[in-house]
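6-phosphogluconolactonase
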Amino acid sequence: MAATHQPPAAPILISFKGKDELVDSLAAFVAKASKESIDKRGKFTVAISGGSLPKLLGGLTKDPSVKWNKWHVYYVDERVVPLDHPDSNHKACVDLLWSKVSIPEDQIHPIDDNLLDDLEELSDAYEKELIREFAQKDSARFPIFDLILLGMGPDGHTASLFPGHELLSECDRWVAYLEDSPKPPPKRITFTYPVINHAARIVFVAAGGEKADTLKTVLDEPEAGLPSARVKPVFPGQLYWFVDDAAAAKVEFPRTPFKL
């Protein structure tokens, strides 16, 4: 009998009155996901994108229940800059998160900034980081993260997957590079959709009225094909949107009350 493929579950949209409530609820959600994964497998694998996400995750640093020594952290995308550069996603996470908690340094996986002059080698090296963690332990063709955390740009991009870019159709590589990002800096590496969509949980975080038009297009008009709308987790993965009321002001998509 031929295998049947379940369609992806509908996204879950959770909207909060303001950013403080969003930050606190997001922290509680991530802490619960962390506990469930650690209880089940003894570790928590998480990948984080850049932008405003590290700041919005700040509530986690106040939660004494989080077992940071069991976290294994990767970056969904990264700007091709030294790790101490202001544009570095890793630096933002170190400054706002990792420097404030007791996560072992060798369980945080930044890019190798000795390879910044060779984008292909840099992306290959980061893909090998994922292979070391996942290839021998999961039977799937792609890694299965416990949680991937994403942001959304005003143009609908997520990670470093931009509207109209050829990487939107990449389906083989785990990590790819680009040198023509429409947002500076132009050189970046990024997870591809197959890696993002195989996560057990995917959470988008979007706040502010400047995201309202884009969020409406992504959720109410997914056929428009914006990069964020192409995030569709493979069954049984689940996609969540944590947004504030300002970002969700124009959205007709049904909201779900927050509960742990």
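thats it. The CA atoms of residues 35 and 66 lie 7 Å apart. The longest strand covers residues 238-244. bye
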